[in-house]
Amino acid sequence: MTERSSRARSAGQPPVHQSPVYLGIRNAILGHSVAPGMKLPEDELGEIYSVSRTVVRAALQALALDHLVTLEPNRGAFVAKPTRLEAREVFEARALLEPKVAAMAAEIAKPADIALLERHIAEEHAAVAAGRDGEAVQLSGQFHVAIAEIANHSIYTDFVRRLCSRSSLIVALYWRRRDAICEHHAHHELVNAIAKHKPKDASELMVSHLVDLFSGLDLSERQQVSRRLSDILKS
Question: Which residue of 27, 28, 97, 220 has the fewest CB atoms within a 10 Å radius of its CB?
């Protein structure tokens, strides 16, 4: 534990990824409440959450690392606005990498790994059923990262984690059908192939799943309803 994190814990402050500022902004972005490109002023966020600008800045930096926010010198923080080209490139990269990773996971997966993936699916389904779409998008990405971790290849896992972080925002912003958050049966079929140690099936299912997920996106420009940041985050 670093000296900085020790001081934060001793002061009773939650880790940045559990802070109300981070979670509130993240959920608003992934839940379609704030528009891509919307400005996120530090002073206004500090007033909304009754915290210092230092706390706000830490949350914004964490969100920037998650590719949900962009930080522009001398201008401030803005909700990320991935382009249609970036969306295509992200899913093309995932389609090249993740089928390989799924096959690797199918070769070495243990019963505990399958149980972990099944828990991911259960949590994702619960979030969808409760209408927590932003959380469901995050859980879907974590499911894919978990498969990479089972494959036990640190470099591939790092790439998958970064790509899933980028595509979580893309899916949240551009899905045109609600089941594009992630097809329920697709994850079940993937887990079954991995559990039965069928690398070829796992690879093919991953390709089909990613193609279907991309096809569920609407990359056309959409007009956003203008709302005040405080109204959005306090609702």
Answer: 220
Q: Tell me, what DSSP letter sits at residue 13?
A: P
pLDDT tens across 170-214, in order? 887 777 655 555 556 889 999 999 999 999 999 999 999 999 888
At CB < 8 A and 24+ separation, what contacts does 65-74 make?
66/26, 66/165, 67/162, 67/165, 67/166, 67/169, 68/25, 68/26, 68/29, 68/30, 68/165, 68/168, 68/169, 69/25, 69/29, 69/40
Residue at 178: amino acid letter: R
CA 50, CA 8: separation in Å to the nearest integer?
A: 17
| pTM for this predicted structure | 0.75
From 211, 4, 193, select the one nearest 92 (Cα to Cα): 211
Are 202 and 103 in contact, with CB atoms under 8 Å apart? yes
6: pLDDT strictly greater than 70: no
Summarize pLDDT for 129-167 with one digit per residue, the tens.
887 777 788 888 899 999 999 999 999 999 999 898 888
Residue 223's pLDDT is 57
Question: What are all long-range contacts of 53-58, with beta carbons under 8 Å and residues at least 24 apart?
Answer: 55/13, 55/19, 55/21, 56/21, 58/16, 58/19
DSSP 39: B
DSSP-derived secondary structure for 72-140: ETTTEEEE----HHHHHHHHHHHHHHHHHHHHHHHHH--HHHHHHHHHHHHHHHHHHHTT-HHHHHHHH
DSSP 37: T
